[in-house]
């Protein structure tokens, strides 16, 4: 039990440090100091900074997918489910923009690392599958969208949401950008 709590504390501390300062600006020693553990414990459990980041990302992805699915389950119609997903993105932007900053930091690293790339691809695949399952399976699409597969539309929805999020992060003073997420509903 103590080991699990210590591992969880280390992962949570690593998440906080990386999401606050960025991966490149945080050292293993910073994380060990913040977590109140010896640096040797981090290297014993995670080998190196990439190993620790991999575990942080796995934890983040698991929690994120559970939260997204819970929001998708809230609506009774596909359009309500989409509204819930949009509201979730808007809420996360307002309450936890660090999560998105870390996600974009991780996205950048995944362009150069096969290990990180696979984790990110799995996240996207899971998100696309959730959107298909909860929103697109039973929704009447506007006629111009019927020629596309649900997977393609789910990818487009996801891309529009993440694209809007990065615009908000880059320009937090712009008040209309978060509302742009609501325009996604016009597709249905």
From TrEMBL:
Record's signal peptide: none
Classification via InterPro entries: Homeodomain-like_sf (IPR009057), HTH-type_Tx_Regulator (IPR050624), HTH_TetR (IPR001647), Tet_transcr_reg_TetR-rel_C_sf (IPR036271)
Keyword line: DNA-binding
Family annotation (Pfam families): TetR_N (PF00440)
Superkingdom field: Bacteria
Nucleus among keywords: no
HTH tetR-type domain span: 4-64
Keyword DNA-binding part of the UniProt annotation: yes
Name used for this protein in its record: TetR/AcrR family transcriptional regulator
Species of the source: Acetobacterium wieringae
